[in-house]
Structure formats: structure tokens, C-alpha cells
Design a protein that fits this description.
The protein contains 13 helices and 7 strands. By secondary structure, it is α/β, with parallel strands linked by helices. The protein has one domain: Spore Coat Polysaccharide Biosynthesis Protein SpsA, Chain A. Strands 3-6-5-7-4 form a 5-stranded mixed beta sheet, sandwiched between helices. Helix 1 links the parallel strand 1 and strand 2. Helix 4 packs across helix 10.
């Protein structure tokens, strides 16, 4: 087990050295240097790995106890092209306020709907920043993580696919804490969107090579998810506002010419279909994640969209003035429930171990 810390993080270093670490634990101190990002720290630790498999966890994570065994079993059953397994990330403090509720729903949408669907269809998908399990040989073949990308997980997921490796989702969950303050939430989402912008610029700068590496269908799916995921929050609320103003004060609902009738029908069709598609996807995610009790938060979805727009424009600004700056997210305001930290393993192997113990 490797604990990777920055050289000036004296508080964490002192806490680790005071803890009764097991013999297999090792503290790796990242030497001074830029950029001060998580992927740089991971690259520093990569040469110290001795096993054939490695998992990445954030310090505040609460993974299900049998997650490592599940991943090892899946790798053993797969071939060498299976390079990554991604566990589902779930929010344990979704009921804390309306922002954490919508954050939890978005996480469920990404990991329990989009990623699982893409994995089942054989399409590339964006990895989570944690709870991903890798073959070390594949990581080294790719040169590790991009130290200058602030969403190294999104970039690595695409690089794995472009190099012929396979990533799959796995049926295991890791519980995380959502930011509870508006400013922290905007900062975190801004970093994510800045990283997606970086990833889009890197992977879409040579479209013909992207198509050659992935095939036309898979490349189109990547562009739709990656570029669409950035453009939607940048202009979506503004587009909705323009539609509302046109309906209230313009001629959207009072067409006179044939062209205006067609224009009205198309606008209304797109608006209604987009609304029901988004609502339906979120309800599916909430059902899969056991989050249906958070449905009242959906009434505040317009405010969430405005927050995402603010984060997206902040990300665009940061991409220009400080592209490699990493907004760190504070954790610890809501401790993980005891049931998450001490739940017994659920695999058949673990059940047999408990019976024979």
C-alpha cells in the first residue's frame, strides 16, 4: 500500500508516521516540482509498484470491503487487454442539503447509467478519479498518467481505448462525500470541466487519428460525450432563457407564417424531448442508486444548471490563465456511516472465509 504525499504536506506526513502502519505500507513523498497535481504524484509512485495489479483510492474513500477481491477475480478471468476496472462512485451524504442531493444524483447518472451503458456497449468511457483498478503493465505501456491534465481519469480512459486496451465497470461501490458549500462545489465542478476541456483539446486535435484509433462509431460517441459535456453547461441555461423569452414575448407560440409554424414545432419538440430524456435518465439513476427519496431536489434542477454554467465559464477562464491549477476539495464535514466502514464482504469467497474462520 503506497501513501503518496506532497513534500510540504507536513500535517498528513505526521499523521501517517504516527499511525500504526502495517509492514506492507509505504509512504512516498513527492519531490518539489510542478505541476502539483494528483497524476504527477501517481506517476512518481508508479516505479515503486511491485505487483501486477494496482488500485487508486483517495484518502477519504470508503470502498466496499470486498472490492479488491472482486477486481482481482475479474482480472484473472479476463485477458491481458482488460486493463482497467472501474467501481461505481456513490455519495453517502446526499441527504445533507439540496446541493449534495443533486450531486449524488449526478454521480449515479454518470457511474450507474452512462458508464455502465458504455461499458456494456464496448464504448470508451471516462474513468472516475478513484476506485479504478489497473494492470500495471498496461499503465507502464501508456507512460502512466498525464501530469498536466486535471482530470487525468478522463484522459486515461480514452488513451486506454485508443491503444487497444479494454476498460470495464465492476459491480462494487465506493462511497464519497459531496461538497456541502456552494463555493467548494463550484470549484470542484470547475476543475472537472477544465480537465474535460483539456482532454477534448488533446484527443480531438487530430480527428482522423481519433477515428483511426477508435473507429467512426466509438469516436463519435467520445466526441458527443466529451464535447457535449462541456458545451451543454456553457450555453444550456442561456438557450433555455432565450426559449422562455421567445415564448413569453416573441412569436414562438404565436406563429403566423409556415416557417414560424415549423420553427415553433421544432423548438417545442426539442425542448420536451430533452426534458423527458434528462428526467428519465435521472430517475433510472436514482432507482439504481437507491436515491428515489431525494426526488424533491429535482425541483431545484434549474438552479443546479445555473451553478454548472458558472463552473463551466470559470473553467474556461482558468484554462486560459492557470490551466494546471488544481482546486483541492476539502473533506471530512460528513463522516461516512459506520455501516459503510465496517460492512462485511459480500462475495462467495468472503462468505466461505467467514464460515471457515
Amino acid at each position: 500500500m503506497k501513501f503518496v504525499i506532497e513534500d510540504d504536506d507536513h500535517e498528513t506526513a505526521a499523521a501517517l508516521r504516527a499511525a500504526p502502519l502495517r509492514p506492507f505500507c509505504e509512504i512516498i513523498v513527492a519531490p518539489p516540482g510542478e505541476p502539483r497535481t494528483k497524476p504527477r504524484a501517481l506517476n512518481i509512485a508508479l516505479p515503486f509498484l511491485r505487483g501486477s495489479l494496482v488500485a487508486v483510492f483517495d484518502a477519504e474513500d470508503a470502498p466496499e470491503p470486498d472490492q479488491l477481491r472482486k477486481a482481482a477475480a475479474l482480472f484473472a478471468a479476463g485477458d491481458e487487454k482488460l486493463a482497467c476496472l472501474q467501481a461505481s462512485l456513490c455519495i453517502h451524504n446526499g441527504a445533507q442539503n439540496w446541493m449534495t442531493a443533486l450531486f449524488a444524483i449526478d454521480y449515479a447518472l454518470l457511474f450507474l447509467v452512462f458508464d455502465k451503458g458504455a461499458s456494456a456497449a464496448g464504448l470508451p468511457f471516462f474513468l472516475g478519479g478513484t476506485s479504478n483498478h489497473f494492470r500495471v503493465a498496461a499503465l507502464r505501456a501508456l507512460g502512466g498518467w498525464d501530469a498536466y491534465n486535471v482530470t487525468e481519469d478522463a484522459d486515461l480512459g480514452l488513451r486506454l481505448a485508443r491503444c487497444g486496451y479494454v476498460a470495464r465497470t465492476m459491480s462494487s461501490r465506493t462511497y464519497e462525500e459531496a461538497p456541502i458549500a456552494f463555493g467548494k462545489l463550484v470549484a470542484q465542478r470547475s476543475r472537472w470541466m477544465k480537465g474535460w476541456m483539456q482532454t477534448a483539446l488533446v484527443h480531438c486535435r487530430a480527428p482522423s487519428r481519433l477515428v483511426a484509433d477508435l473507429g467512426a462509431l466509438r469516436a463519435l460517441a467520445v466526441v458527443a460525450l466529451l464535447v457535449g459535456g462541456v458545451l451543454a453547461p456553457l450555453h444550456g441555461p442561456l438557450l433555455a432563457l432565450a426559449l422562455g423569452l421567445d415564448a413569453a414575448f416573441g412569436r414562438l407560440l404565436r406563429p403566423e407564417t409556415a416557417f414560424e409554424h415549423v420553427h415553433c414545432c421544432l423548438w417545442c419538440y426539442v425542448a420536451v424531448m430533452a426534458f423527458y430524456a434528462e428526467l428519465g435518465a435521472r430517475l433510472i439513476a436514482m432507482r439504481r442508486g437507491g436515491l428515489l427519496h431525494l426526488w424533491p431536489a429535482l425541483l431545484l434542477r434549474p438552479l443546479w444548471a445555473l451553478m454548472l454554467m458558472l463552473a463551466a465559464w470559470r473553467a474556461l477562464r482558468d484554462l486560459w490563465i492557470r490551466p494546471y491549477h488544481w482546486d483541492k476539495t476539502e473533506h471530512g464535514a460528513a463522516a461516512a456511516p459506520e455501516t459503510l466502514r465496517h460492512a462485511p464482504p459480500t462475495t462467495p469467497y468472503a462468505a466461505r472465509q467467514r464460515r471457515t474462520a
